[in-house]
Amino acid sequence: MSRALSKHRLEALVDGIFAVAMTLLVLDIKLPDDLTFGSDRELWEHLLSLERHLVIYVITFVVTGRYWLAHHLQFHFVHAVDRRMIGLNLLFLLIVSFLPFVTDLVGDHKELALPCIFYGATLIVLNAVALAHVRYLRRHPALVTAEFTPEIAWHFERRTLLFMIVPAASMVIALVDTHAALYIYALMAVGYLAGNPITDRVVHAAHDAQRHEAAPTTIGEGSERYP
Questions:
Q1: Which end is more exposed in the chain, N or C (fewer Cβ atoms within 10 Å of the end residue's Cβ)?
Q2: Cα atoms found within 13 Å of the Cα of residue 59, Cβ hemisphere only
Q3: Number of folded domains in the chain?
Q4: What is the distance between the alpha carbons of residues 48 and 178, in angstroms, rounded to a whole number?
């Protein structure tokens, strides 16, 4: 077995890559430098022409945020990492950093099905790596805390599998209607906003830990509390 390492540097790298990827998404939404508008109506009409860019930007931003949250929740149960787990995370980040490119591809080619297929395939591969990450943790209990029960692992796996359905459906729909293929991703946003018992459990645990740390200590039975 590989030697266990601290998880904190990996967490910092993950946060940095996600922050850069989510920032790069907005750079594709821009007005031409050499184009001026003589009236508010002309400007409004041009902004409406950016609909596809705006929609795929919002979709990818929400989806990327969902992947960051899922990764953050998983690492709540991780207390150490090894070389193979680092490799899995680097592969995960490689795909995350690819999202701005496929997002731009979808925004620039609204009549073509291939960009939608590339986009859906990227999300499916990203989910597959996330699924492999959870299963790796299940097979290596030395890397996780006792809180990472089979029930919690199965919850992560189930949600990851469910989020593979939407991009797969979008890839099929794109062969008929590229507009509808884009808007079906709204289902992922709905799933993201739906309640998550694992999120609630982690938040409550963190809140309880903070309250415990903030509680005043006592010395001896019946002694006064120190501020």
A1: C
A2: 28
A3: 1
A4: 18
